[in-house]
Amino acid sequence: MRTPLIVGNWKMNKTASEAAAFIRDLLERLTPSPKADVVLAPPFTSLESAGKALGPSSWISLGAQNLHWDPQGSFTGEVSASMLRELGCRYVIVGHSERRLLFGERDETIQKKVRAALAQGLAPIICVGESLAEREADKTKSAVTTQLNGGLAGLTQQDLVTVTIAYEPVWAIGTGRAATTEQAVAVHRSIRSFMETGWNSTTAAAMRILYGGSVTPQNAESLLASEAIDGALVGGACLNPDSFARIVRIAQTRRA
Ligand code: PEP
Predict the structure, then answer these.
(1) Which listed residue (68, 96, 134, 188) is catalytic?
(2) Averaged pLDDT score across all residues of the chain
């Protein structure tokens, strides 16, 4: 049984002091439970204060939103996997559609980032998803498969143990128009079968596949009720402690 995972992607929101205040509020609303894993992904500048607010060996993990693939060097404005590890990160989001669309990230660099994360013991959360034009042209499966091939090529079964895939249709991100549970389930099943074909059924069965794109406390119940959906990558709704806590509680009580 895969433990559900809820990830809050704060994007470019919350200063260091706002992050600490948010986490104090969030912790009061939640009860730790082994039934769901929770990750907060603040901006780089708020990672340290977020880590302090969570406290040592917190049941909520820290994640970053991006990384550079080299361990150090002349890469102005970039941050390496070891820098993130030292700040207490356990996860890192890689290949978010905003990085692909606004910052020109390509599958080749995404693959290098995934390898850099794994080499430092960070668990990558790799985002894939089709554009509206691709969905309308019936190219969802091929778009997602191309991204999976690009991001995961050459990874071993051992590597994949810590990898999470986030299926995030681009047309659903920040639009208030989430995929229906049926739409999400169909793509999740095709991702799992891609893993089965490319690796094996053990790897495919162990891998968590999250849904992301306008997840709210209202639609989380239906999305997370499906055995094909192992959790959520939440953007807008994770910035409010009440709505994020409600989504976490839905994950903690599902399949109970
Ligand atoms: C995201 O950016 O990963 C995301 C899912 O955003 P939202 O929940 O706001 O659609």
Answers:
(1) 96
(2) 97
Question: Is the pTM for the entire model greater than 0.85?
Answer: yes
Residues within a 6 A CB radius of ligand 1: 9, 168, 173-174, 212-215, 233-237
Which domains are seen in the chain, by residue range? 5-253 (3.20.20.70)
Is the C-alpha dihedral spanning 16, 20, 22, 23 positive or negative?
positive
Protein residue closest via CA to atom 1 of ligand 1: 235
Q: Is the pLDDT of residue 240 over 90?
A: yes
Angle between helices 140-152 and 107-119 (to 10 degrees): 50
Helix (H, G, I), strand (E, B) or coil at 50: helix
- 123 alpha carbon – ligand 1 mean position (Å): 19
Confidence of residue 256 (pLDDT cuts 50, 70, 90): very low
Residue 96 CA, closest ligand 1 atom number: 3
